Amino acid sequence: MSDELLVVRCQLGEREAFTELVRAWHPAVERYVGQMLGGTDDDVVQEIWLAVVKGLPRLRQPDRFTPWLFTVARRAVMNRLRAAYARPDTEPIDDVAGHDETEGVVDRETLAGAVAALPAREREVLLLFYLEDLPLETCAQICAVPVGTVKSRLNRARGLLRLELERKGYEA
Questions:
Q1: pLDDT category, 90, cuts 50, 70, 90?
Q2: Among 14, 16, 46, CA closest to 29
Q3: Among residues 124, 136, 112, which one has the least CA distance to residue 77?
Q4: DSSP labels for 106-144?
Q5: Which end of the chain is less crowded, N or C, counting CB atoms within 10 A of the terminal residue's CB?
Q6: Using one digit for the tens of pLDDT, what is the confidence trace for 120-166?
């Protein structure tokens, strides 16, 4: 069943439709939050779904559910990041010991660590575009910036990711 139809059914008050919508989108929301915050945060995920429950009746264009959902998620993540940045910095722990990688292959943990080290704006477009497989136009809507800005952030993110991987010992 299409997301648009599920949204309309949710707006009409069908609980089963909301359950289906959550089942379909919860993994993507969790993945986005986890990648943006550097680890799972159930509180933020719950905040997102609570905002969806409250805001879904006011969504005028059900066909635009995906960008709307990620905009809600982005707002919750940015609020959490703002709160984290307000706290004093702690020393980062560098876990370089014990690399046993096949030559030319980046393991999942190294890549996740390198992505987590990127600035939030670049990390966000990288995750939306590559991990969530969203088109540039949708990424631009979610981030509330022009498509050209998304392209430049993607370009900068790829460069920063390459530098971070090299810093961790991976040779491209």
A1: low
A2: 46
A3: 124
A4: --HHHHHHHHHTS-HHHHHHHIIIIIS---HHHHHHHHT
A5: C
A6: 899 999 999 988 889 999 999 999 999 999 999 999 999 999 998 88
